[in-house]
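Late entry, evening session. Most of the bench is empty. Finally got around to the prediction I had been postponing all week. Sequence below, unchanged from the version circulated by S.P.
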Amino acid sequence: MTMHTAIVLLSAAFIGLIAGGLTFLSSEAVPGGVLAGLSASGVSVPVLRQLIR
């Protein structure tokens, strides 16, 4: 795994944790928080890949 891949995936995981945590805190629904976190991390991977070059 290259350094670029590690940074992108770590940043995407961090974004997913923040989005999922904030969603959970606002609605107190665990499945909604997990879904929001997974979708935020999945969407952020291509964006971060283009930004971090």
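Two things to note before I forget:
The chain has a mean pLDDT of 95.
Residues 3-27 form the longest helix (25 residues).
Will write this up properly tomorrow.
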